[in-house]
Design brief:
It contains eleven helices and two strands; from the N terminus they run H-H-H-H-H-H-H-H-H-E-E-H-H. It is mostly helical. It has two domains: 5-85 and 150-262; 93-148, no CATH class. A two-stranded antiparallel ribbon has the order 1-2. A hairpin with a 2-residue loop joins strand 1 and strand 2. It is globular. The N and C termini lie close together (5 Å).
């Protein structure tokens, strides 16, 4: 199997079709966990549809950005499924109040007028956000992430808890390096990130020198294929909560990763 853009489109269609076979989804999980996992997986599915269009346009930088974003979502899904975080799903859902409260605090510094925030947010919304944030902090502290683990700690938890992927015990740490770290350069538009996305070619026309930007096809294929692997993990983790689907989704995840990694047809 040659890893190219046509292969990507074929595999993306295959995985999207497979995840639709999981419907109607019958969960073995409490409602809060269903909501947290389902909204994450649906977001990842939406991202896959977007990626198919962006990859066709050969927008290397944007593929890196979306793949990185999807990876963070998948990592949160994996941590939630482990059940190792006390009140995990509720904490994941309620952490939104801490995130939104930070926006309120920053807006208060934009303008010295005390009621400036109320010009952007309705007072009742500010009240809900503030009360939600205070409730969360009283239970779990003023923490920087919903589970009080940094990204590497979450990844290590996933690698230790779940079966190895294609016999690799550090598979998600590998994805951290190849998807998250490389994607960070694209997200923040660093010279490293921008350098991966474009090849500058020199041409000479009528004794005039021109520099023409071209998409870096090697990196386009690289990040496209890794986005498929990340999406397979989304299918895997939601499958862990589905009645009568746990084994079949795990097998699909392992087999399809093997096909990609080994280059099988």
């Amino acid at each position: 199997m040659e890893l190219n853009i046509q292969t990507y489109q074929e595999l993306a269609e295959r995985y999207l079709k497979y995840q639709f076979t999981l419907y109607p989804m019958k969960f073995d999980a409490e409602p809060e966990l269903q909501i947290a996992i389902m909204q994450s997986h649906q977001s990842n599915t939406d991202t896959m549809f977007s990626l198919r269009q962006i990859i066709a346009l050969k927008s290397v930088n944007d593929v890196y950005c979306l793949s990185r974003s999807m990876f963070e979502s998948v990592v949160n899904m994996g941590v939630l499924v482990t059940g190792r975080i006390k009140d995990g799903a509720q904490r994941f859902l309620d952490f939104q109040y801490l995130e939104t409260y930070k926006i309120l605090q920053n807006l208060r510094r934009v303008e010295p007028e005390p009621n400036f925030v109320n010009k952007i947010y309705k007072p009742e919304v500010v009240k809900i956000i503030t009360e939600g944030r205070n409730c969360f902090v009283s239970k779990y502290g003023n923490i920087s992430s919903w589970c009080n683990l940094n990204l590497i700690e979450r990844i290590n938890l996933i690698d230790k808890y779940f079966l190895p992927t294609c016999s690799n015990n550090k598979f998600f740490e590998y994805l951290y390096c190849q998807v998250y770290r490389k994607g960070s350069g694209a997200v923040h538009r660093t010279s490293a990130g921008l350098g991966r996305s474009t090849i500058w070619t020199k041409t000479k026309i009528a004794n005039l020198n021109f520099i023409e930007p071209m998409p870096n096809m090697n990196h386009l294929v690289f990040t496209s294929v890794h986005s498929l692997i990340v999406y397979l993990a989304s299918i895997r983790f939601i499958g862990k909560l589905l009645r009568d689907k746990k084994d079949t989704t795990e097998s699909f995840y392992q087999e399809e990763n093997a096909r990609i990694i080994e280059g099988k047809e």
